[in-house]
Amino acid sequence: MFYATLSETPVGPLLLAADDCGLRFIRFSGAGNGQPSEAEPDPDWQYSERRLKESLSQLKAYFRKQLTRFDLPLAAMGTEFQQRVWRALCEVPYGQTASYGEIAQAVGQPTASRAVGMANGRNPIAIVVPCHRIIGSTGRLVGYGGGLARKTTLLELERRND
Q1: 32: Cβ–Cβ under 8 A, 6 or more apart, which residues?
Q2: Active site residue: 98, 131, 135, 155, which one?
Q3: What is the pLDDT of residues 140-157, one digit of tens each?
Q4: How wide is the angle at C-alpha 117 spanned by C-alphas 111 and 122, nearest 5°?
Q5: 131 is catalytic
């Protein structure tokens, strides 16, 4: 596994990890929910900005509001249901939101809102797989592995017209 960091983003430093199959992780530093203050790579990972060049480039473009849809090989590990949910998340357009119930409908399991929430919370590729775009049925911001402040920042970034 290879990793690189993106130090300056509106949501703080990010750690990215990928292998030959694609991007596997994006980790936030110190989410305030028991995570360490700095995202740390696993000891057996190898630092390589070159191997993550395209992922880093697309994330930088996203934060500059020059990219609204990522085009990267993704290799998140998860159950078949989680994979379906994560694919559905990628279909929520930039600058818009969807509810857990709407994602449950999209994956063909309309009564599985809670399971969708669990899969959403296990998304290992935050931002690129836009779990921040998922909100409660009442329109409230609920739950985010990186913390609600980061979720708010990402949603505001996508809604700004500057």
Answers
A1: 147, 149
A2: 131
A3: 777 777 778 899 999 999
A4: 135
A5: yes
